[in-house]
Amino acid sequence: MSLFFRRAASAAPASVQPLHRAYISLDELARLRFQARSLKLRPDRRALKQTAGIHLSRFRGRGIDFAEVRQYQPGDDIRTIDWRVTARRGKPHTKLFQEERERPVLLLVDQSLSQFFGSQLAFKSVRAAELAGLIAWTAIQRGDRVGGLVFSDFGRQELRPGRSQKEVLRFLKLLHAFNRQLNLDKLSQPVNFDLNQALAEMRRIAKPGSLIFVISDFQDQNEETRRHLHLLARHNDLIALCTYDPLEISLPSSGVYSISDGQQSLRINANDNRLRNAYRNSYEDNLKQLTETLAKTSIPLIQASTRESALDVLRRTFANRPTP
């Protein structure tokens, strides 16, 4: 994607909707706990580390709740043999149980300068913060431990998972602090932290069996990004949320526009079809690379537009429907 649109946080053509929010407030993040009641996080698909907790694993083993009986297989615990079924069928059968275990929920939230852009209802950085807040409140209301890592171009800070509302508020305060630090004056400063480093840190702090949400625009993805995602997904449930703004997909309607990053200005002729096509192809190529990367390791991708509220984005996948 063209660098000037990534960094043109103050550029909003007249043809787009009014922009209301460049920053998120701590009160707004705290109030998301009420909206979170309509959401329900998806269950894990694998359980590589099993500890005492409250979430049912899809892996079968010794535990509390009886699941089923199947024919005995080499390596099964002989203490679980169902002797009645064995005698009735003439072949050894064993009881299987669903194990209960704890599921840490970890959030990796991108608050870098590429997120400090928006032409619709909010900046991408605001939408990312809202998504993280909703997921955190949903997880804590379901009894999960919540923690994570927030990063920008200039550093990162992590918070170990906790199970109380106090821990969620600590994470939201951290998220709010990084969000408020975003400004165009930092464009001239050297970048010393990026998504790849954040993913490497997440690999260090995530315990196997965690549910990890990566919230970013993935604009700087490369082969190293794909390697980190693959390694994280080997031992955890990983879900990617990609933030984007409609103006990043295609140039505005016909006309000549002036944009600025606060330091330099540039005029764009949106009447140039070659420019329009090249611009759109750049976005589509990046999205295709991301989609193919995630598909190889079965990582779900949720696209989050600045045009759509964070709650509506998550409702598409995490709606809390009554159990029939």
Oligomeric state of the chains?
A: single chain
Largest sheet report: 6 strands, mixed
Strand content: 15-25%
Helix content: 25-40%
Going across the major beta sheet, what is the strand order?
6-5-4-7-8-11
Radius of gyration computed on alpha carbons = 23 Å
Shape: elongated
Measured distance between first and last alpha carbons: 46 Å
Mean pLDDT: 83
- SSE pattern: HHEEHEEHEEHHEHEHEEHEH
Structural class: alpha/beta
The DSSP helix count reads 10
Q: In the CATH hierarchy, what is the superfamily of the largest domain?
A: von Willebrand factor, type A domain
Number of strands: 11
Low-confidence stretches: 1-18, 43-63
What is the CATH domain class of the largest domain?
A: Alpha Beta
Question: The CATH topology of the largest domain, please?
Answer: Rossmann fold
Strand and helix map with partners:
Layout: H1 3-7, H2 26-35, E1 55-61, E2 65-71, H3 83-89, E3 93-101, E4 104-110, H4 124-141, E5 145-152, E6 155-162, H5 165-180, H6 195-205, E7 211-216, H7 223-235, E8 237-244, H8 246-249, E9 256-260, E10 265-269, H9 273-296, E11 301-305, H10 310-318
Parallel strand pairs: 4-5, 4-7, 7-8, 8-11
Antiparallel strand pairs: 1-3, 2-3, 5-6, 9-10
Helix pairs in contact: 2-4, 4-5, 4-10, 6-7
Q: What features would you describe in this structure?
A:
- The protein contains ten helices and eleven strands.
- It has helices spanning 3-7, 26-35, 83-89, 124-141, 165-180, 195-205, 223-235, 246-249, 273-296, 310-318; strands at 55-61, 65-71, 93-101, 104-110, 145-152, 155-162, 211-216, 237-244, 256-260, 265-269, 301-305.
- Mean pLDDT is 83; it is low at 1-18 and 43-63.
- α6 (195-205) runs parallel beside α7 (223-235).
- With 324 residues, the protein is α/β, with parallel strands linked by helices.
- Helix content is 36%, strand content 23%.
- It folds into two domains: 3-45 and 102-318, Rossmann fold, CATH 3.40.50; 55-101, no CATH class.
- It is elongated and about 85 Å long.
- The strands form three sheets. Strands 6-5-4-7-8-11 form a six-stranded mixed beta sheet, sandwiched between helices. Strands 1-3-2 form a three-stranded antiparallel beta sheet.
